Amino acid sequence: MNRSHPMRPLPMHLTQGLPLILTKFAPPRSPGDLLQRPRLLEQLDTVAQRRLAVICAGAGFGKTTLLAQWQQHLSAHGSRVAWLSLDEDDDSLWPFLPYLLQALRPLHDGWDPDFWHRVDAQTPTSLQLLLAELINQLHDCPHDLYLIIDDFHVISDRGIHDALGYLLAHAPPSLHLVIGSRHRPRLALSRLQAQDQLVDIGDAALRFNVEEARRYLHDTLSPPPGGHDTQRLLSLTEGWIAGMKIASLSPGLGGHPGPPLHQLQGGTRAISRYLTEVVFDPLPAEVFDFLLHTSILRRFNADLCNAVTGRDDGEAMLEWIEQHNLFISALDEQGVWFRYHPLLRETLIQRLRRDRGLDIKQLNERASQWFVEQRLWAEAVRHALAAGKPVGGNGQDGASARSLAEEGDIDTLVRWMQTLPVSLDPSRMDLQLNLAWALAHYFRFDESRQLLDSLDALVADHRDHLHRSTRIKLQVVRAICEAFAENIPESLAIVEPLLQEVPCGDVWVDGLVCNILSYDYLVDQRYAEALAVQRHMPSPEDPLHNLFVTVYRNFIMAEAHLCQGELDEASQQARQALLQAERHTGPHSSSGATLAPLLAEIASERGEDGQVDLLLADRLEAIDRYSPPDALRRCYVSLARKALREGTPQQAEHLLEHAQHLATLRQWPRVMALLLAEQIRVRLQRDDLTGASQLQQQLEHLASQASIDDPHPVQRAIAQHATLSRCRVWMATGQPDLAVEWLARLVSEQERRHDRLAAIRLRLLLASAQRQSGHPEQAEITAHPALQLARHQQLRRSLLDAGQTLQPQLEQPQDALPSPNHVKAAAVPHRETIAIEAMSPADGSPLGLSERESQALDLIAEGQSNKEIARSLNISPETVKWHLKNIYGKLNVSNRTQAMSRWRGLRWLR
């Protein structure tokens, strides 16, 4: 109780006046069945050992729905639970108290009649005395009492907060209060948390996760969208439930999700109306004005907001907006930098564009000037472009270009540089080199070469006036252009001598030299040399300094580890770099486009299909624009194979054809060959031998001048893909003997080059061909080392693929196999495939199954009943039933026996 606000005397007419509205004592009626959320219901169950639970989030996050489900859950198990909905008329102590008392009245059978006689007779007394009597009445209650108060954000009256604070401070063990609100109630939450008396559920927990989004859309739409589009929609809405619901009403979302999602990204009318009516309209005018002015900013702090709005209340405004959960997220632990939810920001920008009284260009100009003053050049350029103004003053172009290049914002760099006047002045050489660098990363190779040729001529005339690092940068940018154009020998000839020049006095140029030389070695399958080169490049003191160079360094090192079969090292290298980069650049930058596809292939190999969507779905546009060759093909091969597993081969072919179109435009023959081989694999799996043969003819034409041991890395890769694909066709048409010889050569070549990942997969395919040709003993010998390495690196997808083709060998008695543990890992009947596909790398449990669901399956395996499982896990039998329903759906079974069969298969892979 706040002593500065003593409790006021109770009025004489406590319950006189208008009658109580009975509908406030029941949850609002909801249409149809609601999506159950066991993870949150279980969290709410823990309030039985605490005094207070607070469910706090912005509008549309499902607070009321969750509380209504929990109320039904408690009632179904005989618990005493009351509901109270509030509105603006209750924002005063005296209207509020009768509702509070009336809600509690039915929960307890042991009330002293005199207490209610005094209340009903409106006997004058003090509020503190009334609350003390209420607490004493409930002190000896033999059972738990739960009071749910929803929409508490309408309460601003200090007296109500003080009354509830007093009640919580002295509450008997039987009383449990649960509050749903859009902003934090003014109660002693920190003290309750320190006493372990608080259950705190915020917007992060309330957001839909992937599984909840999938179930919601599956129940809502017919036909439901695939996992890929579900993830795109989830990323776009950031799990905001109201946004997901509104999007699900978009025409055609179920059948053709592309256009509605694109439309949603621009802000649908329904989203705009919802935000206007529910979020914007109730706001004070000065708050909405602040939101409108600052919506131009991708990130902001109080000082920047003051500069843009021309006000001096930025800190207070941000504090108010954060307290009221207005779709704002902190970007750092200190709570200095923030951003708005993308849909809220998009709606605000639409309003800003319609408001003729506001000059958007002027707002951007103010933002640009602030970023210039802070020497945050990349953001200064972005806002300067939006304002149609130059960046700051003279002499800042070089710093701005460097900042954009280091950040990897290629799109802005190209757009901005093309607004600058063309000049071959030696003093602007660095600017022109940055543009050539950006054009190469934009795969506009001819434009980059033309600019570099002009700069070569300029260097010839002014060599004595140029810094050494500038001359080296000119050469390394040309090497980058040729490397990305798949002219690897030409690139190597340029860049290998430059390693002797490191360090050259410019750490960014040093990074470019090391990275492109490593990249060339990587494409040439010289993995040890690729990693060795990186030892020449010093790590930056600040992780955000030379961000783009750091991202590419980690990409190359992760690629080298992955090709050598070291999945853990590759994953750690790429994941850390991705998290670090996207904290600064967001999910749609070139950093994510470079690193996410590699992580997606690792996830796909390890059976984590949900992670594939999570990594790629929201980054596809950036991947199409910025991904280097290997990242592009890893992305679309992972997505296509996932589509095949989901039973949508047409989608798999569409994805591969799209990637093939991009590779053809950029003249990447190595990627074109791999994608053709992958399309042939899809056709063969569909038993379309005619279509596979037609594509094989195209691939043979592409490889007509190449051999599998060609010294030219691109030609060698093309020949290897053509040979592998040819072997698959031979096996599909009953000619495995022809395949055995060539697959053996491919295995030998890949193992000689230490490409262990490719070698493992080829060995397993070779073993299949050997068994098909009548040589099971040889197949066993061939497969044995591949099985060992695959098991060690958790290559579940490769094992599953082998499990279908090597089934007779893998089903031999264990004592007849060379390595029982490793063979047992692959010896999984085909009917177990659906469950095993979801295995995660950490503990062998299925990704699709939650930890609690896995625990339930273990207890079922021990023969426990639903009630026994409920006691073991400290949950209700109804929650156990819900878990079992989810388990059956995820494992594609209909009863316990079938679930146990699948679960045994999963344990084999553990």
Automatic annotation (TrEMBL):
SUPFAM superfamilies: C-terminal effector domain of the bipartite response regulators (SSF46894), P-loop containing nucleoside triphosphate hydrolases (SSF52540). GO terms for molecular function: DNA binding. Gene3D superfamilies: P-loop containing nucleotide triphosphate hydrolases, Tetratricopeptide repeat domain, Winged helix-like DNA-binding domain superfamily/Winged helix DNA-binding domain. Keywords: DNA-binding, Transcription, Transcription regulation. Residues 842-907 form the HTH luxR-type domain. It holds the Pfam family AAA_16. The keyword DNA-binding applies. The keyword Transcription regulation applies. One of its GO terms (biological process) is regulation of DNA-templated transcription. This is ATP-dependent transcriptional regulator. It comes from Frateuria aurantia (strain ATCC 33424 / DSM 6220 / KCTC 2777 / LMG 1558 / NBRC 3245 / NCIMB 13370). The lineage of its organism: Bacteria, Pseudomonadati, Pseudomonadota, Gammaproteobacteria, Lysobacterales.
